[in-house]
C-alpha cells in the first residue's frame, strides 16, 4: 500500500487495493454470525459453515438478508448448491465457536460444537442469541466473493439473552458499557 501525506493537512491518501480495504475495515466493528448449510449428496452429506461479519439485513418485506462468501472458501461448494442456509447471531460467550468456524481445515461440526438439524435440514447451532433459516434467492458475483441473498423462512429471534459478539481490529470482542 502506497501512502502519501500532505504535511499541510492531516490528510493521508493510500492507493486503492486490498490492503487499504483491510486496513479501513479493521477499524469497523461488525457483529459476528455463523452461516451453515446442509451438505447434499454431492458433498457426502457433510454440512458446511463459516464465520461471517458481512451479514446485513436487506429488506423487511419480504424479509431478506445478505452475506458474502469467498469462492475459494472450503464452504463455498456446499453454499453454492444449498437451497437453504442457517444464520446464527453469536453472543460474547461464543468466541471459541466463532474461531472454530473461522479456522481453515477444522471439523467445525465435531464436538464440542453442539448442533441439531433444523427446518430444511439446516444445521442449527446451540446457545446462539438468535437463529434464522433462510431460502437462498440469489448469488451475486462480487470480485472473488459471492453476495448471497436469502429470504427468512423460520427462526428464533430470542433463542438466548445476552450481548453480541463483535469483530474489530482483527479480534473477537464484546461490547463495553
UniProtKB/TrEMBL annotation:
Its EC number is 1.-.-.-. The lineage of its organism: Bacteria, Bacillati, Actinomycetota, Actinomycetes, Kitasatosporales. SMART domains: Flavin_Reduct (SM00903). This is Flavin reductase family protein. Keywords: Oxidoreductase. GO terms for molecular function: oxidoreductase activity. Residues 25-174 form the Flavin reductase like domain. It is an enzyme of class 1 (oxidoreductase). It holds the Pfam family Flavin_Reduct. The keyword Nucleotidyltransferase does not apply.
Amino acid at each position: 500500500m502506497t501512502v502519501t501525506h500532505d504535511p499541510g493537512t492531516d490528510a493521508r491518501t493510500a492507493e486503492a487495493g486490498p490492503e487499504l480495504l483491510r486496513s479501513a475495515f479493521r477499524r469497523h466493528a461488525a457483529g459476528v454470525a455463523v452461516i451453515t448449510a446442509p451438505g447434499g449428496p454431492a458433498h457426502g452429506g457433510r454440512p458446511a459453515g463459516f464465520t461471517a461479519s458481512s451479514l446485513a439485513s436487506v429488506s423487511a418485506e419480504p424479509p431478506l438478508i445478505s452475506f458474502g462468501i469467498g469462492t475459494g472458501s472450503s464452504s463455498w461448494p456446499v453454499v453454492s448448491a444449498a437451497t437453504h442456509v442457517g444464520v446464527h447471531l453469536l453472543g460474547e460467550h461464543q468466541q471459541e465457536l466463532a474461531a472454530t468456524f473461522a479456522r481453515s481445515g477444522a471439523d467445525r461440526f465435531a464436538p464440542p460444537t453442539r448442533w441439531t438439524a433444523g427446518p430444511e435440514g439446516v444445521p442449527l447451532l446451540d446457545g446462539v442469541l438468535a437463529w434464522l433459516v433462510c431460502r437462498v434467492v440469489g448469488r451475486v458475483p462480487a470480485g472473488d466473493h459471492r453476495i448471497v441473498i436469502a429470504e427468512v423462512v423460520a427462526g428464533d429471534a430470542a433463542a438466548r439473552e445476552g450481548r453480541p459478539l463483535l469483530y474489530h481490529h482483527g479480534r473477537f470482542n464484546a461490547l463495553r458499557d
